Records
---
Amino acid sequence: MASSVARTWTRPAPTLSHPLVYLSFSHDASCVIAADASTVHWLSCDTFALRGLYQERHASRAVVAACGDMLNEKASTCAVVTTTRAAARPSGGSETTTFAIRRWRPGYLNYHWRYDEWAADIEAVEVRAIGVRGDKTFLVLDGRVDVYGLAGDGRVHVLHRVETCSARPLCAASRAAPVAIAYTGSEVGEVRVERWAAAAGGFAPLSSFRAHSSRLGCVAVSWDGRFVATASFKGTIVRVFHAADGMLLRESSTHCLKDSILKMAIASESHQAHCSCRWMQLRRGADRADVYSMAFSPDSKWLAVSSDKGTIHVFSVNVDVSSSSPAQEDIHNPDSDSPNAGSALNAKQPSWYFFSGFVPGYFRQDGSLAKFRLREGVKYVVAFSHHEPNTVLVIGMDGSFYRCEFDPVKGSDMKQVEYRNFMKMK
């Protein structure tokens, strides 16, 4: 039952405590979503006013993941996954773990037990992430992605289930309707893209392609669902694909330092008469980098990338899809990180747009338009402001929040315009 509460409501207790167990942005980047083991806060990126609160009341349950679209006070939707660890069996068996998902529409108090919408138990070994888009809820689990929703009988059902690579399952969804999702396939380096088909009442496959010869480290989908960005597990290459067919969008030429190995394939002169594109493959040294997050700008002109190297990079994705060039022939090199290495997954061989240079000390930094240096080793999540042009938002597991601006023409270092620590706010 809803309670009448004044709009001048201030942030209530309990405050967040270290360590955070989950951190993300709402899907429109209007809110920071931060969770410790027992509470989740939805904080406005503009005012840091509390827009949503989840407080777990049972000591045996712990928060695993949280999300929210936070569209407005009446249409917002939040969801939280909690886990319950049961005691070990008397016979000596190991303890069991169960998960539950709870989804609701927040009111002014935003407590889930006041505005409960639906709840469901989850059969899974581990829950990696959760997302909401309209009336659908996405769960990234070990080995699969489940899409929950209300069926015709008014009850919660798994509307769609896809098998993924169990090593490091990934899934990303577009902001705009109809929803497009990109997820890791069952093969190493494979990406599958599907789009919601309202007429069919389910997801319809769009494309399947080999993005990298190694397993994937990160996946992102543009707001309108046209583009898919992937990062290799090695952390040195980011590629952007056309979601519908995996065709080439654009290509950037870079140079590498002597610590790296340059592998380049140039189309023959006769082929260049019909296709002027060429591709260059860069590989780095022995150390690897973890790409923590990637995000497209609302207009798909920019892509932001964060990694454990402590530098945020912004790349230009100014692509004219109508003038895209056909794919190049692959050089069959087992050591190459080419997306075409191995057998093709599409009738058309996918092409790619790659960036390099976001691993300091290995590649020149001219691969990215702008960069912002932070503390190395901290997990940072990036997003673009939904209403401020050329503005990147960065949140860290240490409680840091940065608002940075970049020059879309000159590039270079981004300008920090705001810093907060949301863990210390009263």
---
Amino acid sequence: MPKVIFILIFLFSSIAHADRTMLSNVSQSAALLVTASWFTTGSNNPAENTVIPCAGSQCSYGVVLYYQNGSIIDFNGRSIPVTAGMTWKMANDAFVRRFGATGIAAWQWNWQPSQWDVCIGAIPVRSGGFGGIGRPFSIYSSPCTPVPPVNVQCNVNGDANITHGTLNAGQVNGHTAEATIQLSCNRAATVSIEVPSPDIDLGGGVKSRVSVTNGSRISVANSVALKIKSVLSGTAPTAGQHSGSTVIVFNIV
């Protein structure tokens, strides 16, 4: 009787792949501090093995803060030089060896332009890392992430209590008094101001009408002094202590 022999064959295969560095988070704080996180993931893009267009010509690859048409670029130390013949894979491998597969880049600027991007790519640079030409080269369709604007925060400081002092009955009508408060914002903003209930009954036949003399809509570059005005009116006012309160609403628009 013939023997049947079963042969179990294990097949192994592997596909060579490159690593791709990507941005995971880009943010900007009130102090004009831009931060960006990167991580590395696998990529099977055949273009990884093509030579970077600016290779060998004062070109750098890395995480770059980019403004407008390359008028300002800043790697802030997070880049490697792109030498002649260097491919995207070679550049990315060199970047990961130097800076790690994950990390955070940060830039501090003392002014805030209207639009920044953070990009991972290669770009020609002058000495010092500033003054690129055009957008960074990349094999990916969207190598750049816009930097989100800083959330506007405004605060009101100062004493908003208004004191009219001691008045005779004949001095009540039309008597005015003011208090000054400070409205400060962490960046340029437009703020609307509203006094929902401007007429206050102070008791004893005395009323006050409250307003903010700066207007109902103001621009704040940094800090603005606001004057709160109270105008009294009275019908047979009686002697004694008179007081009341109202609310001023500020909206960032």
